[in-house]
Structures are given as structure tokens and as C-alpha cells.
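In this section we turn from sequence analysis to structure. A common task in structural bioinformatics is to predict how a protein folds when a small molecule is present, because the ligand can shape the pocket around it. The inputs are simple: the amino acid sequence and a SMILES string for the ligand, here fe (ii) ion. Study the lines below before reading on.
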Amino acid sequence: MINASLLSLSISVPSIDTEKLEKFEWRNAYEKVSEERLKKSAAFAENAPKLKPVIAEHYVLSGDLADGLLKQLPAKLLEREVPVVIYTVFKADGPSQLILHKDWGRLSVINVYVEAQGSTTTFYEYDRDNNLVQNIESFCAASGEVWAMNSKILHGVVFDDSSIRTMINFAFRRQTLESIIQLQ
Ligand SMILES: [Fe+2]
């Protein structure tokens, strides 16, 4: 089984001024809850990455900005489901990580890496009995690349050094990674 796939899509992303957008606070609230839950499991796993958390900002896009991005997705995919469009900014101050998690409220996601900055996304399997996580798959996206990934497998992102990473996320509630690959 694969959990991430480079798509043959090219999506042009206009410059986005976050000053004019409202932060998606609900998602931030979720991340706090998620962190609590993970303290009881994988975040404390013996061999999980232990780096300080990256700062994550999420903005839900709407109107012309969202429409301009959505219309670049394959029509067949949009016929199945119109995804939520999110603009994400990760700010890493030195080596840091997006803590291991499973995405809430979505089955799969298409990520458009606007400024990728060489960060690495890794999928894990959690061995509860031994409190160990096993690295099952990793990818390091380049700027401009478009990847689809399975949101329901435990994953985290490691940032090697200070950087700002920006990306567009198309979040799907009902499409699997396999259906996105088929419909690209
Ligand atoms: Fe995630």
C-alpha cells in the first residue's frame, strides 16, 4: 500500500496575502486536542522524532481565490467531490516538526507545495505494545510539486532548519488516495 503519490498535475497558485484572510482557529483547537491524545500514544513512542513543534497557520480559502485553484483540478475529480481549499503556512525556527498525527475530518488530501523548503513527510505505524513507531514511507516534496496523500495514516513532518513552508491543501472527505490517483 502506498500513502503518498506525486501527481502529474501542475497548479498555478497566485500570491496570497494572509493579512486579508481569517485564520482557521477551529483547526488550531483541534491540534491542541490531538496533542493531548497523542501524549498517551505515539508522541511518546521511544523512537518518534523529538523536535520542538513548528508553528502552523491555516486559512480556509473562499470566493475567487478558491475557485481559481479548484478549476485547475481534474473535472472528473470535482464531479465526485469539491474539496475544501486551505492555505497553510509552516514557520520553523530551527529544526522542528509537525507532531505525529492523523488528519481530522478528511480521508485524503492533495497538497500543492508552493515553497517546500525540503521538509520531509513520513508515515508511521504505531506498535502500541512496545511503544515504538515504525517509519513505513517518506517523501520530500519539491516546490511546485503536487502530491496526494492518505490522511488517515499516522504521519509527521520534519523541518531541518529555519524556514517558511507554504502550501495549498485540497481536503477531501470521501475520496481515497487511490481514487485521486485514478482521476488525475
Ligand atoms: Fe496531516
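The two ends are 19 Å apart (CA to CA). As an exercise, try to locate the residues that line the fe (ii) ion site and compare them with your own expectations.
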